[in-house]
Amino acid sequence: MMDVPSTLLPIGSGGPSARRFTGKACVITGAASGIGRAVALRLAAEGARIAAVDIDLAGATETLSLSNNPEGGFAASVDVRSADSVAKLAAEVEARFGGLDVLVNNAGIEILGSIDETAPEVWDEIMAVNLRGPYLVSRAMLPMLLAPGKQTGTAIVHNASLMGLVSSARLAAYCASKAGVVSLTRSMALDYATRNLRVNCVCPGIIHTPMLERRFAMQPDREAAYRATSLRPPVHYIGHAEDVAAAVAYLASDEARFVTGSALTIDGGVGAA
Ligand SMILES: NC(=O)c1ccc[n+]([C@@H]2O[C@H](COP(=O)([O-])OP(=O)(O)OC[C@H]3O[C@@H](n4cnc5c(N)ncnc54)[C@H](O)[C@@H]3O)[C@@H](O)[C@H]2O)c1
Predict the structure, then answer these.
(1) Cα dihedral across residues 162, 164, 168, 170: positive or negative
(2) Span 15-35, mean pLDDT?
(3) Ligand 1 residue neighbourhood (C-beta within 6 Å)
(4) Residues 263, 164: contact at Cβ < 8 Å?
């Protein structure tokens, strides 16, 4: 087992002067924790005004306060399963930012189980957060993302998963929801390709976040589970939320202007095997 080699650049450094989001308005869902928090901090560090939104308002507010531009953004309580909640968010984004440049659909949940272990209510819950959520939030934000007169293009980045491209035992509903997100990415990329809106997704592998810690906590020996998990990626360490944030920032930035409909794996090589 090893951690990220110290010879690598500090995670999230993005180069000392990367300021790719100066003046841009960005919405990040699931921003209270893990990857969503890292994305929000990264975009703000590069000059964005961020809307840090989550069903966990306290966590989203903390993310905003940790960012280097809290006064330029806002935190909001949003349930991505609810069309009403998402409509209120769209109105607040319009009122506060006067438009939108980047949407990161990151909120997600993971519940383990093969389908015989997955009750219909659990199936529906996973689909509601992981697949209906990105659909609802994207749909509500589209009028702003497609608004004419923008200087540069706009972007949506969905947080899918490597589990949207391959599968794993006892993760049936989660994998199905994430495969849906990858498919949704491609459909949306095609639908808006000529309207200056790019749509991509990231497919993280094993990333050290509270979601992964909850999985370790279910094991009898947390340290043994951590060690075994660390050895699974060919690089022999677990990714950090900031590794995903760096990829999201690239896809959301104008540097990726020719990239749409892609599913970018950030997995330390797991998917290559
Ligand atoms: N951690 C990993 O190994 C990993 C790997 C691949 C993909 N992902 C994906 O990355 C995303 C973030 O995961 P994470 O590991 O940071 O998990 P996390 O549990 O730390 O964060 C998820 C966030 O989503 C929020 N959320 C949940 N339901 C919501 C709802 N209905 N409305 C609004 N917000 C809601 C939570 O409150 C939480 O803040 C998820 O979509 C997850 O599936 C994670």
Answers:
(1) positive
(2) 91
(3) 29-30, 32-36, 54-56, 59, 78-81, 106-110, 129, 159, 161, 204, 206-207, 209-212
(4) yes
CB 230 within 8 A of CB 216: no
Amino acid at 35: I
Q: Which tokens in the block code for residue 173? A: 């509903």
- Identify whether the C-beta of residue 165 lies closer than 8 Å to the C-beta of residue 112: no
Q: Ligand 1 pocket: which of 27, 29, 35 to mutate (most atoms <8 Å of CB)?
A: 35
Tokens encoding 186: 């491609």
Cα separation, 215 vs 226, in Å, equals 10
Atom of ligand 1 nearest to the CA of 129: 31
Element (H, E) at 139: helix 133-145
Catalytic residue numbers, as ranges: 174
As assigned by CATH, the class of the 25-266 domain is alpha beta
Please measure the distance between the N-terminal and C-terminal CA atoms of the chain and give it in whole angstroms.
19
Domain ranges of the chain: 25-266
Per-residue pLDDT tens over the stretch 179-226: 999 999 999 999 999 999 999 999 999 999 999 999 999 999 999 999
What is the residue-wise DSSP string for 77-91?
A: E--TT-HHHHHHHHH
Which amino acid is residue 57, in one-letter code? L
- Tell me the β-bridge partners of 77: 54
Residues 212/240, Cβ–Cβ less than 8 Å: no
